[in-house]
Amino acid sequence: MNVPRSTLRQIQRCRSIGLWAPAPAPSPYLPIRCRNYSSSNGSSQGDFEAMRAEMLARAPQLSWDVMSPTNSSLLNIALADFIPESCQAPAYQSGAKSIDKVDASYELPQGHHLVYFPLQKTASELCPDGTDPFHSPGGPFERRIWAGGSIEFNDTFRFDSSPVVCWEKVDDVTVKGSAGQEKIFVSVLREYMKKQDFETTRLKGLPLSQGIRERRGLVFMRGVNKEQARENLAKALKGRGRVTKAPNTPDFSITLTPTPTLLFHYSALTFNAHLIHLDPEFCRKLEGHPNLLVHGPLSLTLMLSVLRSRLGPGEKVRKIDYRNLAPLYVNEPLRVCVRLSGNGEDAVEGDSRKWEVWVEGQDGGLSVRGTAVTLRLNE
Q1: C-alpha dist (Å) from residue 219 to 147, 176, 229
Q2: Helix/strand/coil for 254
Q3: What are the φ and ψ backbone dihedral angles of 164, each rounded to 5 degrees?
Q4: What is the mean pLDDT of the chain?
Q5: DSSP 8-state code for residue 291
Q6: Most buried residue, 37, 111, 177, 312, by CB count within 10 Å?
Q7: For residue 192, which of 162, 221, 236, 225 has the smallest C-alpha distance?
């Protein structure tokens, strides 16, 4: 996919005057427009306080869906050529390799919720780079990276075609860095629940006790001009100056090379139009990356798939925390690793176990690092 020249010119014009996202259509779940707080290097503390207050005041965003097997089955198909059978979803392993073979008794594999609850906005409501303005602080902070997050699994979803919803809110906003080099850290809280749970909790202003609770950490940085993008590209092509290795040897790992097809499939399943996953020219000329970037949620999906292959009967992931440390690029091999923490016995607390999970880039350095807790359930 190539971005039309008119779109590239629009993005460049927005950056040159400090504006970024176009004004989205009025919506009860969206700010009317993405504000422009400052385009200078001398942004005042008052600007950031106003930005923070406006973002935290944004009404929650709702994304409804139906728990059908379609998206999960398509994700299984998309991953089938890249991960071994032991890491594939239980339904796919058992022979349900097409949507018609999956019945309502199957559970949604942990991590597959990421390909449900798609962003339900028109192209004109998105930021020029294809991202959701709901999370954006506005110009001039238009470059977005996925820094990490956490997921708590407190309920089981089944493919019973029941209505489900994602309740999403900007949970915290902080500013770090010196004047002109500020970074905006945005914490997004997402809660996934069944319709009846939504009606008895969030709809009444009460906290959710079941479902899936996810936190996403996004970082927004100032845009770069063409010269800065070229400098960033040159640095990226040289590789990381300092490579951080995993402190331990994995108990189990898989190696795969993500292709443009895999990235396209994942973008399509998540309704993700972010151009860093779709257009190499955009990556090189406007972001300073040598190639397409692997999605943060795709890395997370792979870690959960590999971890799931190590679990015993009745054992499920209770929580996972992770940080994205370095970008992963298309057509470059990566290795997904898992390790039971400690010496094995020390990692077990009752019916729970603790794990290290991580992803290494082609240089062998850490690109994603996380920890997980699993729990054996009595069935």
Answers
A1: 6, 10, 18
A2: strand
A3: -135, 160
A4: 87
A5: S
A6: 111
A7: 162
Give me the residues paired with residue 357 across strands. 338, 370
The strand pair at 163-176 and 183-194 is best described as antiparallel
CA–CA–CA angle 283, 289, 292 (5° rounding)? 55
Cβ atoms of residues 18 and 39 within 8 Å: yes
The length of the chain in residues reads 379
Provide the residue type at 240 as one letter.
R
Between 70-79 and 260-270, two packed helices, what is the crossing angle to 10 degrees?
170
Tell me the residue type at 270.
T
Task: Say if CB 304 and CB 317 are below 8 A apart.
Answer: yes
- Taking the complete model, does pTM exceed 0.90, yes or no? no
241 pLDDT exceeds 90? no
Amino acid at 311: L
The phi-psi region of residue 260 (left if phi > 0; otherwise alpha if psi is between -120 and 50; otherwise beta) is alpha
The tens digit of pLDDT for each residue in 244-278 reads 999 999 999 999 999 999 999 999 999 999 999 99
Q: Are 127 and 136 in contact (CB under 8 A)?
A: yes
Are 188 and 215 spatial neighbours (Cβ–Cβ below 8 Å)? Answer: yes
pLDDT of residue 205: 85
Instruction: Name the DSSP letter for residue 293.
Output: B
Phi, psi (deg, nearest 5) at residue 365: -85, 160
Say how far apart CA 255 and CA 360 lie, in whole Å: 9
The encoded tokens of residue 206 equal: 């009460």
Name every residue whose Cβ is closer than 8 Å to that of residue 283 and which is 6 or more positions away in sequence.
275, 276, 289, 290, 291, 292, 293
| Segments in the chain forming alpha helices (H) | 5-17, 45-56, 70-79, 90-93, 195-200, 226-238, 260-270, 280-282, 296-308
Task: Determine the average pLDDT of the residues in 332-360.
Answer: 86
Distance between CA atoms of residues 197 and 205, nearest Å = 12
pLDDT digits (tens, 9 = 90+) for 47-74: 899 999 999 999 999 999 999 999 999 9
CA distance 307 to 370: 11
